[in-house]
Amino acid sequence: MDTNKPDINEIADRVVNAIMEHRLPPGIKLAEEKLAAVFGVSRTKIRQALTQLAKDGLVKLHPNRGAFVASPSIQEALDLFATRRLLEPEIVRNTIARAGKAELKRLHQHLALEADARERNDRRAIIKLSGEFHMLLAEVSGNGFISKLMDELCPLTCLIIALYDAPNTPACPEDEHTRIVEAIEAKDVERATSLMLHHLEHVERELNLDGRAKPDIDWDRMFG
Ligand SMILES: [Zn+2]
To answer: For residue 175, how far is its CA from the centre of ligand 1 (angstroms)?
Structure first.
């Protein structure tokens, strides 16, 4: 057996990465034969990886047309943020209660990566790292159930940002992650949870999710 060939999880992870970096846009077709050629594996393996991603809602499978990157609706986007507003204050509380030196160190290492990506103005890395910060926080918070949910919700959030983002706005506003980690380190539950909620509101507010953003063209102003 060729051990260099990626397994199903590895293929799925790489597709998730491409989605999180906005290299694979929402709604695009994921052609089995192309992916099979790129990864150097059988179409069966590709199909299994795509089925796995479909379970997490990142990929939509159509019986006759094949697989597509998901394209969440405005209602799904609103529901997703509502879910994150429920989960993430709990994540912050758990992190304060349970995280030790090693976990805090991992958070700081991540913040350094984010700062570096901003320094380099590497938008793909910024978007991906922004999402991963929330996944890492969930992981170090020690609640495995929530962590599993966040591993699903964060890549979906990246898709939503790709779909509904106003041009050139950052995925997560600069420095807000740093302030959350500072409040966690200070064990200030109230401040850390309120910073997290404000942060999620900021991210959501940057998106065009009020429905009015859809073609509401003022023809008079445009051509009058
Ligand atoms: Zn964030």
So the answer is: 9
